[in-house]
Task: structure prediction
Amino acid sequence: MLQIEDFGALSKIETPFYYYDIDLFRRTADLAASLSRETGIEIHYSVKANSDRRLIEMLSSRGFGADCVSGDEIVFAVDCGFRPESIMFAGVGKTDKEIFQALQMGIGSFNVESLEEIAIIGDLAGRLGRRVSITLRINPNIDPHTHHYITTGLYEDKFGISDVGFDGAVTLLRQFPNIDFYGLQFHIGSQIMDVEEVFRLECERVNEIVRIFEANGLTVRNIDLGGGLGVDYDEPDLHPIPELEKWLRTIDRHLVRRPDQKLHVEPGRAMVAQCGTLMTRVLYVKKGENRRFLIVDAGMNDLIRPALYGAYHKIENLSAHYGGGPARESRVYDVVGPVCESADTFGTQRLMEKSVRGDLIAIRSTGAYGQVMASHYNMRPLAPAVYSDRLSEGPRRKDYYSQQ
Ligand code: LLP
Result:
């Protein structure tokens, strides 16, 4: 059951909202920072996982870099304190405007995903009279054994340059005197649970690929292994902090490092998933023909992961646990939202305490790819953030830019 200090204060806040456990978030970030120092592996937080200003300012203040996927993410990351030179700019479809913007801001490196992109970035940087650091994102053709929507390192995926493109990439890099070859980047997928096996395989493949580029006369100064570390969605209380240590030590052990070579990773989910909970309230308990529906006031517009990926999130009735009153018997429910779509379902056939109108319900492990993937579908407002250490301040609406 979610540990909360003040159910009274929490239950007065208008639902739905995202509740962030700041103590857990700090402990996760501090562990990541100390492992990074110990192993010498630089961490670039993947801003796409959660761009809550307060959370990411806490990450930038710990010295992490950032992994960004759009011009606005770069502007926001810098506004939140990330040093421009610590920013990696990834994505298969960077626009000219975004490229110019990133060049002018002096970001650390462009992670390019195709030969076409190398030529465009080399050309645009030349027009600005700038040098540009380029990292090649490689598609190593490794199966990370995760959901096919979040698998990114197979030949069938749109991401990265696969081995047939290596020679062409090397030739192109040499054609542009203003391009500095920064290194190689890999990201094979997300929510990887088989940490040791998958990342050992990835490291072995990376070692081979580095040798290919070195044989072509290039110095691979940086190796970036992307993100992908999974979290325990089934039992968040058993594993509130993901296996950051196993992950970074596996990389440290299996990746062959040359002197002066830097290692980087780009975790998103692992940094933020477990500290977030989508809080919602029961509107109606509807008895269907052969199902009992718990209709709550959060919808798929607030959290799309179950609808989009069939993702599992643990669902708990906090009122039954913290609200006082006698112990409740159990019932099986389909927990659904108010949006006009059958896919607006957070969980089917869930065994929970008997629930009544007004009960506060927690949808767990929603700190990553939750609030950031929300939409206004059905003209519903965006759920705000509430922080465990600032309950009295109430909800905070999404704030992308300080100047707005
Ligand atoms: N680096 C690159 C190049 C990426 O594409 C991603 C995630 C990351 C780092 C961070 O990966 P993480 O550590 O979070 O696994 N919306 C999906 C996940 C999409 C992941 C996209 N790329 C979900 O809700 O499961």
